[in-house]
Write a structure and sequence with these properties.
Receptor-associated Protein, flat, single chain, 17 helices, 3-stranded antiparallel sheet, 3 strands, mainly alpha
């Protein structure tokens, strides 16, 4: 039974919106009138998806959050493993959600399943909500006849990715707040506090120390051009983001980032963990290795690493070893390559990929936690240094004037 999104006015004059199932738009309007509501619009639930494919903005084009994807996958896995048919499981998941957009999405998927499409084909109608990895894994589960087990593995994977993302975001909240507050405090001191204090020194007609003259110059610049500087930074960030959409410029920037000592290590570690996790779940689900490599390449955030994985997939197609093909690109850590080589030789590639993914995620988490822990005292030291310079620039002329008085 197809799903329809409705917008209506209830008996109290408030607007109501949601999703209902019915045979036609007329039946949905009749259901709303029986409640005493006045229908305004009733549209098929898949209409937003059709608009997104034409280029219009919609929920499906924006996709769904990592938390919602993990929650939906776990609910689907639990229901299907309990023996509930796929279309009924999709309907139950849609009712479980409080968000009309997510309800509409799941009911639209259910509608495609009822029409005779497989679950993977139904998901493929909504590529912005369900990524390539997700669809390929579900397709492999349906072909192997173990969709319940594959969905359980996929639920574990999506939940693990969400937990890692949440931990990193949580660890970065305090440093970001500290940096913003420190910048605002320094800007406020240089713009409003320092000019009033140094006004006394400029009127004394005495030769001022170099540090004080520098502080006066910086303060005057910030007061006169601070707003222009702020908008200039915003404009520069905007132009940089626009330029990053160009392939040639993005390649140069990413190549430069990978050469940086610490930033390059973080990028490589993050992509190695993501690649190993993706390849592990795809390989466990029965996806052929070459196809799994091509899909895993798409989850990389770096185009250079993505191209290196695609090249490795070509070498594997020609009969090359997976570990040697990946090792040749130089973007993955030796320990991970050794574990993959051991898995190939022992026939336990799935297990070794899982261990490699877990190891890389732990190393990345430890590295980020260490950097965040070092950032806080470093930021405090920088703030103390800035305040010390401001205090010295103010105190030096006072001490000089005292010496003159003596």
């Amino acid at each position: 039974m197809p799903a329809f999104e409705y917008l209506c006015v209830d008996t109290n004059g408030r607007r109501q919106k949601g999703v209902l199932e019915g045979d036609s738009v007329r039946q949905i309007r009749q259901q709303l009138r029986e409640k005493g509501w006045l229908p305004v619009t009733v549209e098929p639930a898949a209409r937003e998806h059709q608009e997104s494919r034409k280029g219009g903005g919609s929920f499906f084009k924006r996709g769904i959050s990592a938390y919602e994807l993990a929650l939906v996958t776990r609910q689907l896995a639990t229901l299907i493993q309990a023996g509930i048919p796929v279309e009924e499981a999709l309907r139950a998941v849609s009712k479980q959600s409080d968000r009309p957009a997510l309800q509409s999405l799941m009911l639209a998927v259910r509608g495609r399943v009822i029409e005779g499409y497989t679950l993977a084909q139904s998901f493929s109608e909504f590529p912005h909500a369900f990524p390539d990895l997700y669809r390929a894994t579900v397709s492999a589960g349906e072909k192997s006849g173990h969709i319940d087990l594959v969905l359980q593995q996929l639920a574990d994977y999506t939940e693990s990715r969400y937990d890692t993302q949440r931990k990193v975001q949580g660890a970065l909240i305090y440093p970001i707040i500290l940096t913003v507050l420190a910048t605002l405090i320094v800007f406020g001191m240089l713009t409003y506090v320092v000019p009033d204090i140094v006004k006394v020194f400029t009127n004394s007609h005495h030769a001022l120390p170099l540090l004080t003259r520098g502080l006066i110059a910086v303060s005057g610049f910030m007061k006169a051009y601070g707003a222009f500087l702020f908008f200039g930074i915003v404009a520069a960030v905007f132009l940089f983001r626009r330029a990053m959409r160009r392939e040639a410029f993005s390649y140069r920037v990413q190549a430069w980032q990978l050469r940086l000592p610490l930033v390059g290590r973080l990028i490589k570690g993050n992509n190695a963990a993501r690649f190993a996790s993706t390849l592990s779940i795809l390989n466990k689900s029965g996806v052929p290795l070459v196809d799994a490599l091509k899909i895993a390449a798409e989850v990389s955030s770096s185009w250079l690493i993505r191209d290196a994985i695609r090249e490795a997939a070509m070498k594997v197609t020609e009969g090359g070893s997976l570990s040697k093909s990946l090792e040749a690109c130089g973007y993955f850590p030796p320990m991970m390559m050794q574990m993959i080589a051991s898995g190939e030789s022992s026939g336990e590639l799935d297990e070794m990929l899982t261990r490699a993914a877990t190891m890389q995620e732990k190393e990345l988490t430890v590295l980020i936690t260490t950097l965040v822990g070092l950032f806080e005292p470093m930021m405090l030291l920088v703030m103390a240094g800035v305040v010390l310079i401001i205090v010295m620039a103010i105190m030096l002329p006072i001490m000089s004037m005292n010496n003159l008085v003596k």
